[in-house]
Amino acid sequence: MAKVATAYSLAMLLAVAPVRAEDTADSLKRFEFEQIEMGVDFRISLYACDSEVANNAAKAAFERIQELNHVYSDYTADSELRQLCENSEPGRPVQISDDLLPVIDESLRLSRESNGAFDITVGPLTKLWRRARRRKLLPEKEALASAMSLVGYKMIRLNRECQTVELLRPGMRLDLGGIAKGRAADEALEVMRSYGIRRALVDASGDLVAGDPPPGGNGWVVDIANLDPERSVPAARIELSNCAVATSGDAFQSVEIAGRRYSHIVNPRTGFGLSRRSSVTVIAPTGMGADSLASALSVLEPETGLALLRKRGESQFAALLVLGDTAPAAPRVIRSRCFSRFEVSPKVE
User: Mean pLDDT across the stretch 85-111?
Assistant: First the structure.
């Protein structure tokens, strides 16, 4: 399942972590950086001993994000992803880089686990629905059928040993919108660690990857936006360190056509934008995992999605589902078993 863009931005609040002798509050200062990358706001918060160290680490992190965008973008004509789609066809596998391999590998794993609820071959559908939202007209039946004929993760043949990908139907288009930002945030944090910065948070427009907490506390405190963007009360407040969180929702990206609301989130199995209002938040060990699982759980029925998380391991994965399938003023809130482990006061019902 691909996301055109993250619909929710998770508001990051300052929290603190235990102090170590070599890492005292007096020696560290907080620095904030922001740039538009991958078409969205990337924000970096970090603690460093001085501005030179902070600036160098942040600069390197943003450069790494730019490098990955040239690999993952479905907008840039000369990106590795676009070149793969242009050059691969049945019988012609294409060599892929060390940066693209793990993303496609993880995408196919989640596609199998979710029975196609997450599917990076959804590119023809997302292109069709971008046009539909602009025109406020449903895709024509013939165009939808043509796009659907090119969607299906089983039409990707990945050879891990040779590091090649073969697309088994001409005209296929891959879309990494539901996984790439999380992977980029992971890599940005790793770059900063190589500069000695361990107390940092990368916010890829709602996909957050946290390192060690700020000095003096237990984690980074994050507010999860409510299903109704006009409500100031958050859906939940969580505290994180050395893990990631992502929210997939449609509060800011939807269209009403013929009296029915359609999300920007497209169900790869039906070809239509979701009509149920939802906000799905997933906590996972990595940004790539949180990003892609939030996309998959948006499409899956709640119990099926939570069962998928349990198979991944409840000690490391958690979810909050806010579903607008009841009255808008009273959405249904579902927490996975371990979500409360991350919640801090005030707990919102």
Answer: 97
pLDDT over 50 (residue 13): no
What average pLDDT does the structure give for the chain?
A: 88
Encode burial over 82-119: b for 16+ CB neighbours within 10 A, e otherwise: bebbeebbeeebbebeebbbebbebbbebbeebebbbb
Residue 104 belongs to a domain: yes
Q: List the one residue out of 172, 215, 186, 203 whose CA is nearest residue 33.
A: 203
Name residues whose C-beta falls within 8 Å of residue 87's C-beta, 6 or more positions apart in sequence. 94
Q: Which residue has the higher pLDDT, 19 or 277?
A: 277
3-state SS assignment for residue 279: strand
Q: Give the residue from 285, 48, 314 showing the smallest Cα distance to 56.
A: 48
Which residue has tokens 């990368």?
202
- Beta 318-323 vs 332-335: how paired, if at all? antiparallel
164-167 and 156-159 strand pairing? antiparallel
What pLDDT score was predicted for residue 263?
81
Tens of pLDDT, residue by residue over 29-81, are 999 999 999 999 999 999 999 999 999 999 999 999 999 999 999 999 999 99
The two three-digit tokens of residue 2, written as one number: 């691909």
Is 132 contained in some domain? yes
CB crowding 233-244: b at 16 or more within 10 Å, else e: ebbbbbbbbebb
Model confidence band, residue 15 (pLDDT cutoffs 50, 70, 90): very low
CATH assignment at residue 107: 1.10.3980.10
CA–centroid distance for 285 within its chain: 13
In a domain, 98, yes or no: yes
Total domains in the chain come to 1
